[in-house]
Amino acid sequence: SFELGDYDDVTRMCNSSINSMKATFESFEGAQDAIDIAKSAIEKGKKAGSKMGISNKLLEQALESFDAGNFEKSSDLAHDSADQAMASNQDYTDSLNLINQAKSQITEISSILDVSDLEEVYSLAVKDLESERFDSVRKNIDKFDALYKELRENAKPDIDVIFEAPDLVKDDLTKVNFLLENQGTASAIGFNFSLSDGQEKTVELGPINRNIEKLDVSEREEIILYLNFLRSGMEIPFRYEISYKNALTGEPKTITKS
């Protein structure tokens, strides 16, 4: 066209080539920017603890398309990678917050209640987080919350008392042991021993040698004290009371035995 003197045609062809090169360069730059954004999003996700599996795969495909010169496809894949990374990072952060809250709840009551069932569900949620199964994390945390609420509402200590009377001598201070076992689902605190009112005067309370401050679930401890019996014999009837509180709620309870 140039040799034939068709300069308008030459100009149009040159402009078309320039525009094509410009469009290609813009696609190149756009794809490169999108890849950089995807890399940054993935890096932030990894620092937060997420594995970024899907995002990494999309980024790999974006890089392959970029190397092949398919910049538009590369840009689309890179944008998808970044979007997935940001979504995964948010899901991971949300799930991690739920798990941390559950861990705090376990720590809060572990010295008071039997938390073995809670720990089992918590462990499942942690495994789901490690595998980035965020929906399963939320389902397990919902199960955890329901179990936690039920456990707090129903948790109570159940104290069993074993007392074997020694050979008792009138007017002698006799050391006696009361073995207590917590067969319930919550710890007990604030133990107090006393003699029941209204009974025939057969015994006086002496010094308490050892009391119990706290009795956890399945634990056994002794209250050791001295009694001054006013009658002799192996089987002297007397009534006594052991009071305590639910360590979780503060609710008092008294056991009366003879």
Termini separation (Å)?
Answer: 121 Å
Number of H- or I-type helical stretches: 5
Strand proportion:
15-25%
The chain-level structural class is alpha+beta
Question: Strand sequence of the main sheet, in spatial order?
Answer: 1-2-6-4
Shape: rod-shaped
| Secondary-structure element pattern, one letter each | HHHHHEEEEEEEE
Word description of this protein:
This protein has 258 residues and is of the alpha+beta class. The chain contains 5 helices and 8 strands. The chain has helices at residues 7-48, 53-67, 71-109, 116-130, 134-154; strands at 159-163, 173-182, 188-195, 203-210, 214-215, 220-229, 240-246, 252-257. A 4-stranded antiparallel β-sheet has the order 1-2-6-4, with no helix packed on it. Strands 5-3-7-8 form a 4-stranded antiparallel β-sheet, with no helix packed on it. α3 packs antiparallel against α4 (116-130) and α4 runs antiparallel to α5. The radius of gyration is 38 Å and the shape is rod-shaped.
Summarize the structure.
The protein is an alpha+beta fold.
State the main characteristics:
alpha+beta; disordered N terminus; 258 residues; 51% helix
Blueprint of the fold:
Blueprint: H1 7-48, H2 53-67, H3 71-109, H4 116-130, H5 134-154, E1 159-163, E2 173-182, E3 188-195, E4 203-210, E5 214-215, E6 220-229, E7 240-246, E8 252-257
Antiparallel strand pairs: 1-2, 2-6, 3-5, 3-7, 4-6, 7-8
Helix pairs in contact: 1-2, 1-3, 2-3, 3-4, 3-5, 4-5
